[in-house]
Amino acid sequence: MTSICFMMFLGFADDVLDLRWLIKISFSFLATLPLLVAYSGPTNIIIPRPFRGLLGSEYDLGFFYHGYMALIAVFTTNSINIHAGINGIETGQSVVVAGAILMHNYLELGGPHANAHLLSMFLIFPYLATSLALFYYNWYPSRVFVGDTFTYMSGMTFAVAGILSHFSKTLMLFFIPQLLNFVLSLPQLFGFRKCPKHRLPIFIKKTNKLHYSENYTLINLTLYLFGDMHEKTLTTVLLLFQAFCCFIGFAIRYSHAVTDVFYESGYLLPVS
Q1: 96 and 242 in contact (C-beta within 8 Å)?
Q2: Terminal alpha carbon distance of the chain
Q3: How many angstroms separate the CA atoms of 108 and 120, rounded?
Q4: What's the CA gap between 115 and 239, in Å, rounded?
Q5: Taking CA 71 as the corner, what is the angle to CA 68 and CA 77, rounded to the nearest 5 degrees?
Q6: Residues 200, 213: contact at Cβ < 8 Å?
Q7: 160-163 long-range CB contacts below 8 Å, 24 or more apart?
Q8: Burial class (CB in 10 A: 0-12, 13-18, 19+), 166
Q9: CA 262 to CA 268: how far, in whole Å?
Q10: d(CA 96, CA 3)
């Protein structure tokens, strides 16, 4: 909860003070410290079958596993923040991901890590309930704008659930659109191309539709591939894509056809 509250405060500070990216990333890492201290799980990973001749069946990462968890938390926090800018997209993607997490937790309640997934459910249930109400008012035409306060809090909430309940790799499967948006954004994030604060598409007043801009985001890529769209339609398309990617995540997580290539027969992805 300390990490979540820290990121919520950072989001509020950014909304008010318009902080620089370097400051936000630095404080994002700082916010992960309470989470890393609270983590008491294993730091070893199961080695996929093709690499066991070199590394063995398991490998203990030790301190580097904590570095991995910190990167996961910083990514989830900031990836929702940069996949934003149109009515309903921030709250909508968060609701879809939260729903996928709850479904995953429910499916794992009969497994050996039931208590860990129950902890995640206790955290995500109230988050989803309040986010659904917020989504109602944030949907086009938006009557409430969430800002960075909500996006940072959401990302850290997901990170806390995934790390403390030991399903961080599964969590990344639910973040496929955010991963794609991050990869598309790299030229601007690293300064190779001009990066305005709000990388929004262009509003065409005559048609009441959005047209892609020169910014490298998933929103603009969608408009480039499928043509101009009304803002409500664009949000719907992106949320359907988010839901589809979560379905693909479940297929990868629970499909023996995929997991048997890397792990023993009948063995699913490691809980972490």
Answers
A1: yes
A2: 20
A3: 11
A4: 31
A5: 145
A6: yes
A7: 160/3, 160/4, 160/35, 160/73, 160/123, 161/101, 161/119, 161/120, 161/123, 161/124, 162/72, 162/76, 162/101, 162/120, 163/35, 163/39, 163/69, 163/72, 163/73
A8: buried
A9: 9
A10: 22
Q: Which helix (H) or strand (E) holds 36?
A: helix 33-38
Residue 246, token pair as written in the block: 């979560």
Residue carrying structure tokens 């989830």:
76
* Encoded amino acid at 40, one letter: S
Q: Is the peptide bond before 42 cis (omega within 30 degrees of 0)?
A: no
pLDDT digits (tens, 9 = 90+) for 127-177: 999 999 999 999 999 999 898 999 999 999 999 999 998 888 899 999 999
At 225, the amino acid letter reads L
**What's the pTM value of the predicted model, to 2 decimals?**
0.89
Alpha-carbon gap, residue 80 to 74, rounded angstroms: 11
Per residue in 20-73, pLDDT (tens digit) is 888 889 999 999 999 998 888 788 777 777 777 777 777 788 888 899 999 999
Tokens 């995640």 sit on residue: 120
What separation in angstroms does the CA of 142 have from each of 130, 159, 226, 233, 245? 16, 27, 24, 14, 25
Q: Tokens 């997901």 identify what position?
A: 158
CA distance 117 to 107: 9
Q: How far is it, in rounded angstroms, from Cα 250 to Cα 233?
A: 26
